[in-house]
Amino acid sequence: MNITDFCPNCEDYREVKAVEREETYTVKDQKVTILVKTKLCVQCGESIGTDEDDQKILDAINNEYAINNE
Length: 70
Fold this sequence. Notes:
By secondary structure, this protein is of the alpha+beta class. The protein has one helix spanning about 50-70; strands at about 5, 10-25, 30-40, 45-50. It has one domain: Ubiquitin-like (UB roll), CATH 3.10.20.
């Protein structure tokens, strides 16, 4: 079963695949690595997410930063 979603890069509905990957962000000159669940456009590789997905990422970054600085 193919899953499709709108790809802003392709500007069309494309097949997507779910992936989990580590991403590293910098917070106050400190590297923070988290596990991110996202969808990728099979055509161009663009990461596709919602505002809720972005908020979850920001929350995870903030939590990891707080844990590292206790």
